[in-house]
Amino acid sequence: MNHIQKICILGGGTAGWMTAAGLAEKLKHSDIAITLIESEQIGTVGVGEATLPHIRYFNETLGIHEPTFMKATKATFKLGIEFCDWGKIGDRYIHPFGDFGQPINHISFHHFWVNARQSGDTTRLSDYSYPIIAAELGRFQYPDPDPSKIESTFGYAYQFDASLYAGFLRQHAEANGVTRIEGKATESQLDSETGFVKNLILENGEQISADLFVDCSGFRGVLIEQALKTGYEDWSEWLPCNRAIAVPTKSGPANLRPYTQATARTAGWQWRIPLQHRTGNGHVYWNEFISDDEALAQLMDNLDADPLADPKQLFFKTGKRKKLWHKNVVAIGLSGGFLEPLESTSIYLIQEGITELLQLFPDMYFPDSDIDEYNRRMDLHFDRVRDFLLLHYVATQREDSEMWRHFRSLTLPDSLQEKIDAWLHRGHIIKYEIGAFLPPSWVAVLVGQNLIPNNYDRRVDHLSEQEQFKTMEQIRKAVAFAAGNTAPQQDFINRIGANAALSPEASA
Ligand SMILES: Cc1cc2nc3c(=O)[nH]c(=O)nc-3n(C[C@H](O)[C@H](O)[C@H](O)COP(=O)(O)OP(=O)(O)OC[C@H]3O[C@@H](n4cnc5c(N)ncnc54)[C@H](O)[C@@H]3O)c2cc1C
Fold first, then answer.
1. Tell me: the pLDDT tens digits for 181-210?
2. What is the CATH number of domain 6-74+160-236+321-383?
3. Which of 9, 38, 45 to mutate to test the pocket of ligand 1 (most atoms within 8 A of CB)?
4. Three-class DSSP category at 259
5. Can you tell me whether residue 178 is helix, strand or coil?
6. How far is CA 108 from CA 147, 227, 373, 437, in A?
7. Pocket residues for ligand 1 (CB within 6 Å)?
8. In this predicted model, which residue has the larger pLDDT, 503 or 357?
9. Which atom from ligand 1 is nearest to the alpha carbon of 219?
């Protein structure tokens, strides 16, 4: 028998239950048995509320009904992230999940904006983005299916309670045959010849064997690190923030905003994530330049509503495992690596880990070529997120604290330096096949943090300035009109039946 018969997932956080639900759905017509082990005694990390649009495809693959999911997870819609005080103190911009304007003669819109700016026009690039203006007005509607309309030029994600999401997926996974075992794994046994993990031993003595193990045990990395000693690539050199304090608050003035906020502070940044029933807040910081007490005080001073629980402290080291797949263990979630949550990328990386695993699903031979390909692709996903996060820290004019001065003199990874150089030279964004962030995301952050190209695509000049300005003005007006006619997000949530307060479980 050379096909996999038993899969064991260790961990029941967001990563564990996403993996269980994803694998169970795709493998439901096979005879593969899937077991998930989790320990209530250990618990989950308990944070992670903002997502990227990719999650919609994950949910769709599972056949999840959006309003039911939104009610169950108390989700709001997310059109992007507002960054405050990143380029300079007082700056604000939204990184939208969507385009700026529409291409003119197949040339990206931002080139026309750069040209207009060089001629003295002061209109914000944001004014040409439907998702930005809708977000600023607190509005939401689904993208229009007609691609010629400006209301079609965006995607959306969610802000939700990740623990409720894990619970929601658990039902889905169990309905597709996943067996859950409550218990703490205390030991793992390796095959003496191959070094593969053979068994997990639980605290009660139970022995769980499997052909393939997925390590979703969180920062501990019980299998990938404690058992297989795979090693960790430390990226603190580039992303040095290493601690966070999280605290939920009552719904505040931010709650009807269909976007997450990330406000730069002296030694890190603060998140605010509006859910239907509360707001998630947290301060991510570098302990080299701020004490835990000061970081907590900064967070508490900047809440916009009363706390609902005691603040929770978290410790981390940014980076990733040297191999996300090693022998018969695949690390998905925090066990595989962690990049700070500035652009809500962890759940996205979990999803990519599951998708790539399904594409390269092994047989009992575990061919090196497939394992290497998985690791190569996942490395690219991680590298590109790292570069995008680092961009926020280095595309800045801030020098008002030691952390910001540190970033001014940092040597960047070549891949990021090349991207910035190409942009500054003529507004070109280098594109990749793999990577979460498409050119408009890079444009949003670069322009939002005041890195304006010196030049633009010269094909812009094939159109007279008069024609260019007329077309741009039409787009700006269409954006303002369409966003102005979009419903407030709360009305939209009510209309589609996704208001958690109206569900029978709401009082629970
Ligand atoms: C400060 C912070 C903010 C974040 N914000 C975001 C965000 O906005 N968006 C986003 O996408 N992501 C965010 N993340 C990341 C997100 O929280 C995680 O990616 C996500 O929760 C997945 O975690 P996990 O399932 O890998 O680990 P965990 O939640 O830690 O789950 C680990 C599981 O393994 C089990 N386990 C561990 N050891 C054993 C054992 N020996 N035996 C049995 N079971 C065991 C535990 O019981 C638990 O079930 C954030 C992370 C941090 C630290």
1. 999 999 999 999 999 999 999 999 999 999
2. 3.50.50.60
3. 45
4. coil
5. coil
6. 16, 49, 33, 16
7. 10-16, 37-39, 42-45, 47-51, 162, 184-185, 216-218, 220, 222, 244, 246, 282, 314, 316, 333-335, 341, 344, 346-347
8. 357
9. 30
pTM as predicted: 0.96
DSSP letter assigned to residue 29: T
Reading the block at residue 278, the tokens are 């509360």
Tell me how far apart the alpha carbons of residues 99 and 150 are, in angstroms, rounded to a whole number.
9
Query: Which two three-digit tokens encode residue 365?
Result: 């031979």
Of 168, 346, 389, the residue with max ligand 1 atoms within 8 A of its CB, to mutate for a pocket test, comes to 346
- 93's CB contacts (< 8 A; 6+ apart) are 82, 83, 86, 87, 126, 444, 447, 448, 449
pLDDT digits (tens, 9 = 90+) for 52-82: 999 999 999 999 999 999 999 999 999 999 9
Atom of ligand 1 nearest to the CA of 273: 8
The CA-atom distances, in angstroms, between 396 and each of 85, 282, 360, 405, 445 are 9, 22, 40, 10, 10
User: Which tokens in the block code for residue 393?
Assistant: 């820290």
Which residue has the least CA distance to atom 4 on ligand 1? Answer: 48
Rounded Cα gap, residues 6 and 34, in angstroms = 6
Instruction: Write the CA distances from 455 to 299, 426, 498, 500, integer angstroms.
Output: 40, 4, 46, 49
Q: CA–CA separation, 235 vs 253, rounded Å?
A: 36
**What residues contact 443, with CB distance under 8 A and at least 6 apart?**
100, 108, 110, 125, 429
Domain ranges of the chain: 6-74+160-236+321-383
Residue 256, both tokens? 């009807």
Question: pLDDT tens-digit profile of 210-245?
Answer: 999 999 999 999 999 999 999 999 999 999 999 999
By annotation, the residues acting in catalysis are 78
> How is 311-365 classified by DSSP, letter by letter?
-EEEE---EEES-SEETTEEE-STTTEE--GGG--HHHHHHHHHHHHHHT---TT
Ligand 1 atom nearest the C-alpha of 46 is 29
CA pair distance 31, 473, nearest whole angstrom = 59
For ligand 1, atom 33: residue with the closest CA: 11
Q: Report residue 503's pLDDT band, with 50, 70 and 90 as the boundaries.
A: low
Query: Under a CB-based contact definition with an 8 Å cutoff, are residues 318 and 241 in contact?
Result: yes
